[in-house]
Amino acid sequence: MNPALSSPCGPDCRAAVFHAPGQPLQLQSFPVPVPEDDEAVVRISCCTVCGSDLHTLTGARAEVTPSILGHEAVGFVERLGPRPLRDVAGVPLNLGDRVTWSTVIACGTCDRCRAGLPQKCRQLSKYGHDRALGRQALNGGLAERILLRRGSAVVKLPDDLPDEIVCPANCATATVAAMYRCAEPVAGQRVLIFGAGMLGLTAAAMAAARGACAIAVLDTQPRRLELAREFGATATLAWTADGSDLSESLRELTGQALWDIVLEVCGAPAAVAAACQQGDIGARIVLAGSVMPTPDIPFNPEQVIRRCLTIRGMHNYTPADLLAAVTFLQEHGRRFPFAKLVANTFPLDRVNEAVAHALEQRPIRIGIRP
Description:
Elements: E1 12-17, E2 26-31, E3 40-48, H1 51-58, E4 72-80, E5 98-105, H2 111-114, E6 125-126, E7 145-148, E8 152-156, H3 163-166, H4 172-183, E9 190-194, H5 198-209, E10 214-219, H6 222-230, E11 235-238, H7 246-254, E12 259-264, H8 269-275, E13 279-287, H9 301-306, E14 310-313, H10 319-332, E15 342-347, H11 351-361, E16 365-369
Parallel strand pairs: 9-10, 9-12, 10-11, 12-13, 13-14, 15-16
Antiparallel strand pairs: 1-2, 3-4, 3-7, 3-16, 4-5, 5-6, 5-8
Helix pairs in contact: 4-5, 4-10
């Protein structure tokens, strides 16, 4: 039986609340709100901890407080408003539906939403990033329940897709889907990926699934490069910004000096600079890693012009990208070892132990099961 159907909502539920960098998360109780029109209360079954959550916890990234972190979550619909919230296909949700949802909440009507940039909505809210106050306090994944609000992009999930595979769908997987949307076509193309964290590994797997003819992954950590091979990379390169000629290293390794698609997902300024130099004629270069303040990088406009390059930034994604991410995981989630990227899972009452483990061991992901 779905957990959502096993018991009704109680008067309150627990959540791990972030108050300040370097301080333990505090377990606090919150009343479970009665959902209004176009809302739903979801009982969370699992939430994985994203790198951005760790950046917030350590103070590398500023966030409002108090807040309930966590956005890579999956759960079961437990309560619905009088007019049920609908999924991205326009179908009303039902009690017991297993779902994931977009990180962003968008109005759908402003100029940015109409232009296909709902992640930059003028009335934007984000799960796992807003203050945990008032009726909408339950807005993060490190909790027993969450209130999905009007403007949420929701995708229904099959019961046989494990939490460990699907939790990152509404973060890394959807972001990579958005990057490839900007970089199409992929079939028969040479793909170069800077970074072998969750984004980079997902990018390698998605390139393989879409028929790329060569997939090279660069990272500084040998352990992650080994993983990249399991996720479809045809070549890997341990790289640091040491002044060596990256193009020549790539040519010696792969026979390819320049690439059709270049994805940068690590955020290191040197990697961003290198990524902008590795595109062949007509290449599509998509940057997604620099989500914190970073120094400027050198830039050669002549090469952009002469090579007819397209350089695009991608932050978050659209509802269609989330649907594409879930579809990809349904079709290929077991072909690649996504499940083992979640190194350990912890109950909510051990959340601080989980965070310490993530910071000390640096696994790709850990999971929290309320």
